[in-house]
Amino acid sequence: MAKSSKVYKNILVIEDNHAILDVITLILQSEAYKVSGFNKSVDMMLHIEKIKPDLIILDIMLPDGDGRDLLKQLRSDTKTENIPVLMISARYTEQNVEHGEFKPNGFLAKPFDIDNLLDKIEGILAGKTY
Length: 130
Known about the structure:
It contains four helices and seven strands; from the N terminus they run E-H-E-H-E-E-E-H-E-E-H. By secondary structure, the chain is of the alpha/beta class. It has a single domain (about 10-125), classed as Response regulator (Rossmann fold).
């Protein structure tokens, strides 16, 4: 399938590490995704309202908040409760992460493999949960 025939999906990335944010952005743009990236969670709900993302990639450890609290905020709002979320973390692994009451659609530990990132994104956009 040619990239030009792909339906563009909006992805919002909230990641405080500029290098990781840049890499994720470049990878996703090369796969024909529209990417908006922020390094803080401040005004997250305003960004979501403006961008209307099809998927959010959300770091757990942010300078101004915990991604798990942000996930709870997303899932508790009827306007954002169904937006798929892929959580990423350098501190936690799939074995030791505790999400609490609200679960993301997927989790990926950093450093991650690019193919694994893309597979999870495509799977989550297709309705899968990891």
